[in-house]
């Protein structure tokens, strides 16, 4: 073997070994658009690369948010579609950004999803327990007017209709499953940092048979290369919902504030703590007044102060309720965990179930839940 | 107010005394069983639910070398009880003779704010923060080993090392952006 033939190979070999230094990986992730499951943190500024990785710490909700104004949402959104969204209990999941999802191709998506469900049925995956004659018709529709900021994508509503088993020929199909994908007031930095082909609709709600939910999720995962995961409504988030709903009491009465706690004793003790709406409102406004007095000492713009609610006020409100309970029952609820919060405006369960009963505060609730979904999305 | 004092009594020969403070009184039992197995020195384990300790035992109680607070993150009460107990410790303890041990940190039911609050507390007191897993025997063994290494230094059984020196190496730190919300 002539020595000349060896050396160019060796050189090439050397080049390929030295071409990938480790510290350029971070740079690659930010500029290349190959990673489909985009990290939320990769869009944070340069400081995140130079000092501590915020990986361990940037996992918290806003500490203060605007008080909800009642949006007369029926002006902007089709009231029929709105009626489908309220008063149903939805199971929540988070979704990573969808690749090449086009709002203009909804009809073709409906056809494809119906075909997918029919094919899965053929394969023998049990979809329903009744006879094999059921045909499913899927409809994708747009719920326009719910997006709050310019970066939000429009909400998509998915419904699966089918005829009941012993139906007459002319009986209309009833919806057996509904779901929606939405993004309300998502973080603009994150939304703008996504590559062009991705749409971010991080919050997914579903109601209906579990088998159909899994089918729809697997279809989305196959077509748009996204991933779904369960979304729990954390303790802090439940506290926020409680405070935000109580704050709306003057405009539309909450009628009662009901909390369900579980205490870790043997056998497990479940406490249902219902507070009269007037009392809850008095407690909340006294907590707010204290905060106002503190703020007057410092100087804050008046309209900001009226509108924003801080996390300290929320924890103060919760602390007041817990100490009242302790005074009467000698049971400290801090030892347990909060499972469910419900008022006349809606109910939220720790497991990830949400029901919005009044369409006026839907935007605020969904903003909070979108934030939770964006935080829970994995790297 | 009975404050626990680190240097008011004489130490024992080749002995280390540890006080485990836990509001739930669960993990401390299994930890205690594992801690007394140590053969290199005599380890005395004292258990408490919270401070202050009862006055009746004041005379018989040996010098406590290390106070370990066990906080269960799934319960708010656990953290509050530990915080309230800190008042009953003499400031001399915070020179390396206190440590925090946290369980259930990986549980999804734990709001991140609670872990942040524990970290801030440990960092402000310059104490180490240990994470432990209390459900499996392996977890208990690991937690025991880590506690023993700090305990031996705090009891003066390790030459060339003092509790203050060790604490300057092992103390909990808080990243500067811990208070920054993820969204604006």
**Fourth-tier CATH superfamily name of chain B:** P-loop containing nucleotide triphosphate hydrolases
Strands of the largest sheet of chain B, in order across it?
2-1-3-4-5
Gross geometry of chain A = globular
The SSE string of chain A, one letter per element, is HHHEHEEHEEEHEEHEHEEHHEHEEEH
Number of strands of chain B: 5
Could you state the oligomeric state of the chains shown? Answer: heterodimer
Q: What structural class should be given to the helix and strand makeup of chain A?
A: alpha+beta
* Distance between the amino and carboxyl termini of chain B: 45 Å
How large is the count of helical segments of chain A?
12
Q: How far is it from the N-terminal to the C-terminal residue of chain A, by CA?
A: 51 Å
How many distinct folded domains of chain B?
Answer: 1
Number of strands of chain A: 15
Description:
Chain B: It comes from Cottoperca gobio. Chain B: InterPro entries: Centromere_Cenp-M (IPR020987), P-loop_NTPase (IPR027417). Chain B: Its main location: nucleus. The complex is a heterodimer of chains A (379) and B (184). Chain A has 379 residues and is α+β, with helices and mostly antiparallel strands. Among the domains of chain A are: 7-13 and 234-359, no CATH class; 97-226, no CATH class. Chain A contains 12 helices and 15 strands. In chain A, strands 2, 4, 5, 6, 8, 9, 10, 11, 13, 14 and 15 form an 11-stranded antiparallel β-sheet that branches. A two-stranded antiparallel ribbon of chain A has the order 1-12. In chain A, helix 8 packs antiparallel against helix 12. The two termini of chain A are 51 Å apart. Chain B has 184 residues and is α/β, with parallel strands linked by helices. Chain B has one domain: Rossmann fold (3-Layer(aba) Sandwich). Chain B contains 5 helices and 5 strands, in the order E-H-E-E-H-E-H-E-H-H. Chain B has helices at residues 27-35, 76-85, 112-124, 137-154, 163-170; strands spanning 15-22, 42-48, 66-72, 98-103, 129-132. A 5-stranded parallel β-sheet of chain B has the order 2-1-3-4-5, with helices on both faces. In chain B, helix 1 packs across helix 4. Chain B starts with 14 loop residues before the first strand and ends in a 14-residue tail after the last helix. The mean pLDDT of chain B is 89.
